[in-house]
């Protein structure tokens, strides 16, 4: 079964981010319509040991990463696009013992900024854990920012 170029680019991008490797983030789906990442439930991301609820920081990382990588779904070539602004509205805590999924789409692309929106959910996207909106700066394909990260993503290697 062949992999789409968008899915392949999203997987390479995610594999280059060490903190995402530690969290176990995985690309669930990726297409021109958007990106879904999966955060597997594990004890090392629990914020409250008494309840087993996932720490909000893990959900924030999931959603920032999902929004950031969703830029590869709309751009013709890889560009480094750092987060300018991210707002997350938490609706309710994630249910302990279950994976969390993050979906994001790019709803507006300008020459300098990409605007994203999405949500985190567990079993049902219609029952979100959180909603997110984010803005990401376009630095251009020739940006000199983190050349090593860009090279790793393009070559499919991990940082």
Automatic annotation (TrEMBL):
Gene3D superfamilies: Hotdog Thioesterase (3.10.129.10)
Domain of life of the source: Bacteria
InterPro entries: HotDog_dom_sf (IPR029069), PAAI_dom (IPR003736), Thioestr_dom (IPR006683)
Record's keyword annotation contains Acetylation: no
Gene Ontology cellular component annotations, sorted alphabetically: cytosol
Keyword Hydrolase: yes
Keyword annotations: Hydrolase
Gene Ontology MF annotations: 1,4-dihydroxy-2-naphthoyl-CoA thioesterase activity
UniProt-listed PANTHER family: 1,4-DIHYDROXY-2-NAPHTHOYL-COA THIOESTERASE 1, BLR7284 PROTEIN
Record protein name field: Uncharacterized domain 1-containing protein
